[in-house]
Write a structure and sequence with these properties.
With 142 residues, the chain is mainly beta. The protein contains 1 helix and 8 strands, in the order H-E-E-E-E-E-E-E-E. This is DUF2147 domain-containing protein.
Length: 142
């Protein structure tokens, strides 16, 4: 009976840990220069890859902004609803090999994301290799 209880506890803990360590969900983005909240991005899985789209803009004067300098099909699109994280694949504890778009500058960067804590997501955009870039920390919206 004691072994059964320990086994069930271990299984439950493993399942809860796996669920808690999922990057999907809604995340509040923070401007790394001002420290102010900018938007809510919903991170989701599609065809085994990770994507993220802007679902809410928190800055009143930017609610109707468009992506003026974005490349390709994203040029001129409203930032609200724009997919800014594209095609990340799971690699151990992080997701990488995709891109992230900075809608304010229109620049597209290589990207990786990983959970720092259950409710804190590390988002790194870079050019070339990951030492040349910048990191933001997003916070899970409950």
């Amino acid at each position: 009976m004691k072994k059964l209880f320990l086994t069930m506890t271990l299984v439950a803990t493993t399942i809860l840990t796996a669920v808690a360590q999922d990057v999907t969900g809604k995340w509040k983005t923070i401007d790394d220069e001002t420290g102010e909240a900018k938007s809510i991005v919903e991170v989701y899985k599609e065809n085994g890859k990770i994507y993220g789209k802007v679902v809410e803009i928190l800055t009143a004067d930017k609610k109707d902004a468009t992506c003026v300098d974005c490349p390709g099909a994203d040029k001129g699109k409203p930032i609200m609803g724009l997919v800014i994280i594209k095609g990340l694949e799971k690699d151990g504890d992080e997701y990488n090999d995709g891109k992230i778009l900075d809608p304010s500058s229109g620049k597209l960067y290589k990207c990786y994301i990983e959970l720092e804590e259950t409710d804190k997501l590390k988002v790194r955009g870079y050019i070339g290799f990951s030492l040349l870039g910048r990191t933001q920390y997003w916070h899970r919206v409950k």
